[in-house]
Amino acid sequence: MTNKLIKYNKKRNFNKTKEPIGKKTSSSSNLHFVVQHHMAKKDHYDFRLELNGVLISWAVPKGPSFNPHDKRLAINVEDHPLSYRNFEGIIPKGQYGGGTVMLWDKGFWIPINNPQQGLQNGTLKFTLKGKRLKGNWTLVHMQNKNWLLIKENDNYSNNIADISQFNTSIKTGLTINEINNNETLPKKQSVNSQLVIENVKVTNPDKIIFDNFQISKRDIAIYYQTMYKRMAPYLENRIISTIRCPDGTSGTCFYKKHMENIYQGLAKVMINNEKGIKEDYYYIKNITGLISEVQMNSIEFHIWGSKAKKLAKPDMMVFGLDPDEKLELKDLRQGVKDLKKILDDLSLVSFLKTSGGKGYHVVVPIKPSTSWKKFQAFAKNIVLYMEAKWPDRYVSNDRKSQRKNKIFIDWMRNIKGSTSVAPYSLRIKKNGTVSMPLAWRELNKIAPDEIKMPDAVKRLRRQDPWKNFWNSNQELK
User: Fold this and answer.
1) Buried b (16+ CB within 10 A) or exposed e, 317-356
2) Do domains 193-310 and 316-471 have the same CATH topology?
3) CATH code of domain 193-310
4) 91-137: per-residue pLDDT in tens?
């Protein structure tokens, strides 16, 4: 028995606890780490790193945080054996650490600085490669046994994912209460694999969709539930196509525009395609329909410019400003201002939103009394005018070869059957960015890909910048 585990073994009666006995073990070439949710006298998380054949360990009262601004207290405790990284179960009452232990995360860690020197000097930097914890982290010694566990600012950091959202074991799929209640595994795995939101059973809620930011299917379902009241006026009863990512955004994603969903809250409409063959398109009727799409792994929502029951009469004109990669943000913003000035001169009220990608969208509500042919021609003529007036700034052709140092003003979203991303929709390309409605005064303050899920939710506290969107009652002349 290594001296490092004497303290561990002395604290435990292995005739009563199922915890593994501390035995000498050789470290592997890959260093393991584990985080265990420990519901003992005081609820906390145990953070353990493999080093020199043992798991050096800290008790973290609030658990790790994905937010670099959170400095979580981590109290150094006795070393644990390497076999402890697989332990999940109940430590009997009256025993040291009595309570329930759940495997919250596990994987491998890579030291950034020399780990022995880092521990001695009070700063240990490392990279985690777990199922839930990823990227760079730092442990900083304060005094006595007290350290701070801090997430470094990188592609895996964010201020959205409260770890309480991840409330199941990565080993069994059980919650800590289910482990504590000692119910049968098959039954509990079935219960845990579902989350009911708006009468829709969301299966595999803890499945990570945006890997870089640890955004789960649960997070996305709750986001759309939260945003639905704001989103509904632009989404309900309007034909949609979605982008689905069954294996998360790092896997294969695809467009879906035909009706295959069996849930309520959706309706089908038959439309002739280019060959005159009827195809079944569909639309969302209510929040149940939206959450059922999330259950089917739809993440990004695109909408037609007309309502399903008034297909021939468009009511939402969208201009997308897509800049050449070399253009500065100030040039893009000037393009938005130039377009707005033209619309203002035509006495057309317009609204602004981020694309969630690299551009902005300018949206014009129109009374549904105009044909698609006239609607399309009007949008195109606006852009042709801009192209003629500022030939060195704007282009109406979507070929990238003609876009050098210019902004493509996308008018083709206003052709019958074309779509544009819905207000408040998530985008799959930017790790949870949102196509977010803005007030015009925010144009110079907010970049096209700046608003992410937590920012969008916080903005609900503000006055709706599109509150009067459908009140303009304006027509094309």
Assistant:
1) bbbbbbbbeebeeeebbbbbebbbeebeeeebebbbbbbb
2) yes
3) 3.90.920.10
4) 998 999 999 999 999 999 999 999 999 999 999 999 999 989 999 99
